[in-house]
Design a protein that fits this description.
Elements: H1 19-28, E1 32-36, H2 40-48, E2 53-56, E3 73-77, H3 87-101, E4 105-109, H4 115-123, E5 128-133, H5 152-168, E6 172-176, H6 180-189, E7 194-197, E8 205-208, H7 210-213, H8 231-248
Parallel strand pairs: 1-2, 1-8, 2-3, 3-4, 4-5, 5-6, 6-7, 7-8
Helix pairs in contact: 3-4, 4-5, 5-6
Length: 280
């Protein structure tokens, strides 16, 4: 029998999170958790930690290989320009994310102005998570990363946006960079779950960017970020130790090497002799 590098494993699918179970959490007053994940190892770790929703952010575009084995709901961010030309383009690209990337749902930014697009994607049998408030793909129009809904007119617009995406069929909505009081009002107003990021604790759930959670960001931290680890120094230290041990010959050791079976009949050339010159 050939030597295997990796043992086999199974996944318990009975624990699978669904859109219905997320909706049920809101109805029971239970909080929903969401984290971004951009590759299989982190997606798996967050999944094993019991996180409900994994968001594959538009900075990476499509889900990495391996996400199809997670138990959490995988949501793919639709990249800028993939839904801005109308419903037909949006539906085509949403279907591609499901068929080719393995996403279960998609997320797109915008409220009333995107309601028709959301409805078209939902009618094509692809669930949609909406995103209103501070929408990063509109950062230039919004003149930077600023809290949204701080005037009467802006607050009323966000309330209309929330109603519009729910009416269009979105199963959930992200509220980003919104005053706590306004986010709480939107959460009370909607039947679908709200997921907050910089929107206060009254939202039905919370999301953080993976790198902010783990202390791996190299930019100033927004007010709403609470790091739960400081891994940058550990990662840097691990890489430096690896480099030093490789350079010194300490890695790999014999215990980390494979050997030919004793019964194997393999003839190998003898090691070359190294001539040592002696000083005359």
């Amino acid at each position: 029998m050939p030597m295997s590098l990796y043992p086999s494993e199974t996944v318990d699918r009975s624990l699978k999170v669904t859109l219905a179970s997320c909706r049920a959490k809101k109805e029971r007053g239970e909080k929903i958790t969401c984290l971004t994940a951009y590759d299989y190892p982190f997606a798996r770790l967050f999944d094993e930690a019991g996180v409900d929703i994994l968001l594959v952010g538009d900075s990476w575009g499509m889900a990495a290989a391996g996400l199809d084995s997670t138990l959490a709901v995988t949501v793919a961010d639709m990249p800028f320009g993939s839904y801005h030309l109308g419903a037909a383009q949006a539906v085509e690209n949403a279907i591609r994310l499901v068929k080719e990337a393995g996403a279960e749902t998609v997320k797109l930014e915008g409220g009333e102005s995107r309601a028709a697009v959301i409805a078209a994607i939902v009618n094509a049998e692809v669930p949609v998570m909406a995103h209103i408030g501070l929408t990063p793909q509109s950062v230039h129009r919004q003149s930077g990363y600023h809290v949204q809904g701080v005037t009467q007119a802006a607050a009323e617009q966000l309330l209309r946006d929330a109603d519009a995406v729910q009416a269009a069929g979105a199963f959930s909505v992200v509220l980003e960079g919104v005053p706590r009081e306004l986010a709480a009002a939107i959460t009370r107003q909607l039947a679908i779950p709200t997921i907050g990021i910089g929107a206060g604790p009254e939202c039905d759930g919370q999301v953080l960017v993976m790198h902010d959670l783990l202390g791996l960001s190299f930019r100033p931290r927004p007010k709403f970020v609470r790091p739960y680890a400081e891994l940058a120094q550990q990662v840097r230290g691990a890489a430096e130790t690896f480099r030093l041990e490789v350079e010194s010959g300490a890695f790999p050791a014999d215990a980390e090497s494979y050997h030919l079976p004793k019964a194997a009949k393999v003839e190998l050339p003898a090691p070359a002799r190294v001539r040592v010159r002696t000083a005359r």
